[in-house]
Design a protein that fits this description.
The protein has 321 residues and is mainly alpha-helical. The protein has one domain (13-320). The protein is 80% helix and 1% strand. A two-stranded antiparallel ribbon has the order 1-2. α6 (142-152) packs antiparallel against α7. The chain is rod-shaped and about 110 Å long. The two termini are 51 Å apart. 31% of the residues are buried.
């Protein structure tokens, strides 16, 4: 046997007849539903804000890794140049002569390397300092380029947020994908060159050249010139790789900024929805008191106004904030 809710005749008498009376009677229920909805929206926005904060922390960690690579490779480039300066200051070094190097390298592996495409490219790198191309530039979007420049200049968070506003998260992901692909392309292009240099250096450290603990004997003019060219090549290589890591790190930094901006936005929306929920709950309380106090006219109007304001405010936050 189902239970029925009984409303006293006195309470029924306080409610106006007709459709308007039914609407007023349903106000507490409707406001309760609205308050629950706003509470859910507030909680959802807070969850998204927390997610964006966690994502920003992960992106910051990735940016830190790339900055570490950048610093390590810049340091390696500086060490190569310092060694090259010492070599130039203590011995006479000439530009590497490809013919003299080919005549000096008589071993089969070295001859195979010299006659290969990679060997010819290696000689070009050693004699002219020309590194292979890493492909097209990683960042071509003018909006991202502007944001990178703004971040590099140390502009305020408000200015950077304005510049980053039109940049979509998908655009940054695509730029990072292109930047990492450029790194892989450059690494693949350097592999045959590095193998050729290793093969040449290995033969130069064997008789008839006298070996030392640090590589080819620099008393041999060809070996000395080769060492100088190899150091210059390595310095250029590390400089190029460090710039590639720098670009990737800066793109991650933009992702961090954008995630933090999104987190702040969702946090603000969560607060505004919370205020709307409070207004809806206030409408429930007022309408309940109005029924209990039998002062339906003014209090019902106040309850309806509070509920309407809560709905309008929630819609404003959802659409514009």
């Amino acid at each position: 046997m189902s239970a029925k809710i009984h409303i006293s005749d006195e309470l029924k008498a306080d409610i106006p007849a007709g459709k308007w009376g039914k609407i007023l009677a349903a106000t507490p229920i409707v406001m309760t539903v609205i308050a629950t909805l706003l509470a859910g929206l507030s909680s959802g926005e807070m969850t998204r804000a927390q997610y964006d904060r966690a994502l920003a922390a992960q992106q910051q960690s990735k940016a830190g890794d790339q900055w570490n690579y950048f610093q390590a490779k810049r340091l390696r480039a500086a060490l190569q140049r310092n060694t090259l300066d010492l070599l130039h200051g203590t011995t006479g070094v000439r530009p590497l002569n490809p013919q003299a190097l080919a005549a000096r390298l008589t071993g089969t592996p070295s001859q195979v390397v010299l006659n290969s495409t990679g060997g010819r490219q290696t000689l070009d790198c050693l004699t002219h300092g020309t590194l292979p191309s890493a492909g097209p530039e990683a960042v071509t979007d003018s909006r991202i380029i502007t944001a990178l420049a703004a971040a590099d200049e140390g502009q305020s968070d408000a200015d950077l947020a304005r510049i980053l506003a039109p940049v979509k998260a998908a655009d940054l992901i695509a730029a990072l994908r292109d930047a990492n692909a450029r790194v892989r392309t450059f690494d693949n292009a350097l592999k045959p060159i590095n193998q050729a240099i290793d093969a040449m250096e290995k033969e130069l450290t064997h008789p008839p050249t006298t070996t030392t603990a640090t590589g080819p004997d620099t008393s041999d003019p060809v070996a000395r010139d080769f060492v100088s060219a190899r150091l210059s090549y390595a310095a250029q290589r590390y400089d190029t790789e460090s710039r590639q890591n720098q670009i990737i790190a800066q793109l991650y930094e933009l992702q961090v900024r954008k995630s933090n901006i999104s987190a702040e936005r969702h946090h603000g929306r969560s607060q505004q929805f919370f205020y709307g929920m409070l207004a809806a709950q206030m409408a429930v309380i007022i309408s309940t008191f109005s029924m209990a106090a039998r002062k339906k006219n003014f209090l019902w109007a106040l309850a309806a106004a509070a509920g309407t304001a809560a709905v309008a405010f929630a819609l404003y936050v959802y659409l514009y904030v």
